[in-house]
From TrEMBL:
TM ranges: 27-48, 78-95, 146-165, 171-189
Domain Mechanosensitive ion channel MscS: start-end pairs: 191-258
One Pfam family it belongs to: MS_channel_1st
Locations listed in the record: Cell membrane
Domain of life: Bacteria
Protein name, entry field: Mechanosensitive ion channel family protein
InterPro entries membership: LSM_dom_sf, MS_channel_1st, MS_channel_C, MscS_beta-dom_sf, MscS_channel_2nd, MscS_channel_C_sf, MscS_channel_TM-2
Chain spans, region Disordered: 296-320, 384-428
Alphabetical list of SUPFAM superfamilies matching this protein: Mechanosensitive channel protein MscS (YggB), C-terminal domain, Mechanosensitive channel protein MscS (YggB), transmembrane region, Sm-like ribonucleoproteins
Lineage: Bacteria, Pseudomonadati, Rhodothermota, Rhodothermia, Rhodothermales
Length: 428
């Protein structure tokens, strides 16, 4: 139909003239097809974007609408031109060489456009992650942005290899060379790459986040920053401790922020002269003290057994749950008891409030019943050295021992055997 219209409007001699080996008629048909296809694609794109923006404003599938709108916005003119040219060449029935040329052009343009679309979707995901996590975990956002950059580099590397392969360049040797170079680089920076992937593991798996209190080996503190290479922790004594991410994940981490309740084991001892009946009553009194603590919901509170009601300005202990109390065994200087209870809040200061209240309650309860706490003592039994004499007289033996003890204090004037007597003084 279009050919007949052209034949009526223009002279057949001009239409049959060859330009670059293609008749002028075919060039005109291609131009008309390009115009029609381009207008159709432009109108379709504008209509889709208008509908998507309506969905975004009405919050109907807002995230999906935003993603598709971003993809359409990133659609470049060279891709639309290549697509239009390919469709038009098919419509006008170009020769085989022309069709091959337009198909190659469309393939190359599609590769470039696909790279822009994929990187655009990565940026949309990073923006959404940033909006959700920026206030709660800024370091995780920083790490994910760096990981997003690495992902974009990987995407464009693959696109570049495919582009070179489509224009006739043999990329096998290039890929082999890159593989050998990659191994060398990987060996050189394996520690850095290990910390980088450890950072990715921390961000995705979330064994801890900023603000958590951790114990790593003998160190303990609060997480301040999670980076690509290292994690920084503010210790309890104030200094900053820096861990590499790889070493941190290889260690055994205790996250106290995830604690829901705290198990406490309390041990004490009473003196050996405590009557057995009082010993048997100790576990029950301990239970009454623990279960009689005030909780956050009990503002009036119950005084621990044997004590006065707590003062109004005293710290309110957290809710606790009694587990068990037993007479555990016989110690070196005490009768030992073991008590287990749970503090139902993770805060350490609240736990110490509960421990203080229980200790005071035990002091009052045991003092009211005359039960004394034991402390390390040692009793020495001194035995006399008196031994019976051979004739059965211990007293003579003692006397003899006493006279022997006094012998070194006496001076004997007699010379010892073999010694000469001293010469008398000269009268002159």
């Amino acid at each position: 139909m279009l050919r007949s219209v052209l034949r009526q409007l223009l002279d057949a001699e001009h239409l049959d003239r060859m330009v670059l080996g293609v008749p002028v008629e075919d060039w005109l048909l291609l131009a008309a097809a390009l115009l029609a296809t381009g207008l159709l694609l432009a109108v379709t794109r504008a209509a889709i974007r208008w509908q998507l923006r309506r969905d975004t404003r009405s919050r109907t599938n807002a995230w999906f609408a935003q993603a598709v709108d971003n993809v359409l916005e990133r659609t470049r003119g060279y891709f639309l031109f290549a697509l239009t040219l390919y469709l038009a060449s098919r419509l006008v029935g170009w020769n085989e060489q022309g069709l091959t040329w337009t198909a190659t052009l469309l393939t190359l343009a599609s590769l470039l456009q696909a790279g822009r679309w994929i990187t655009g979707l990565i940026e949309i995901w990073l923006d959404r992650y940033r909006a959700q996590k920026l206030d709660a975990d800024a370091s995780a956002v920083t790490s994910m942005q760096a990981i997003g950059i690495l992902a974009q580099i990987a995407v464009w590397s693959v696109i570049a290899l495919m582009f070179l392969a489509n224009i006739g360049i043999n990329v096998t040797a290039l890929v082999a060379g890159l593989g050998i170079g990659g191994v060398a680089i990987g060996l050189a920076v394996q520690n850095i790459l290990g910390d980088l992937f450890a950072s990715l593991s921390i961000v995705l798996d979330k064994p801890f986040v900023i603000g958590d209190t951790l114990a790593v080996g003998s160190e303990m503190g609060t997480v301040q920053h999670i980076g690509l290479k290292s994690t920084r922790i503010q210790s309890l004594s104030g200094e900053q401790i820096v861990f590499s991410n790889g070493d941190l994940l290889a260690s055994r981490i205790r996250n106290y922020q995830r604690m829901t309740e705290r198990r406490v084991v309390l041990t004490f001892g009473v003196t050996y002269d405590t009557p057995p009946d009082e010993i048997a009553a100790v576990p029950g009194r301990v239970r009454e003290v623990i279960e009689g603590l005030r909780s956050d919901d009990d503002t009036q509170g119950a005084a621990p057994l044997g004590g006065d009601p707590p003062k109004a300005d005293a710290p309110v202990p957290p809710p606790v749950r009694f587990d068990r109390a037993h007479f555990r065994g016989f110690g070196a200087s005490s009768l030992d008891f073991e008590v287990v209870y749970y503090v139902l809040v993770p805060d350490y200061a609240r736990y110490m409030d509960a421990q203080q209240a229980i200790n005071l309650g035990l002091l009052r309860a045991f003092g009211a019943h005359g039960v004394e706490f034991a402390f390390p003592t040692r009793t020495l039994h001194v035995a006399s050295d008196a031994r019976p004499a051979r004739d059965g007289s211990a007293r003579d033996n003692s006397a003899r021992n006493g006279s022997d003890a006094e012998t070194p204090d006496r001076h004997d004037a007699r010379p010892a055997d073999g010694d000469e007597a001293p010469a008398p003084p000269d009268p002159a």
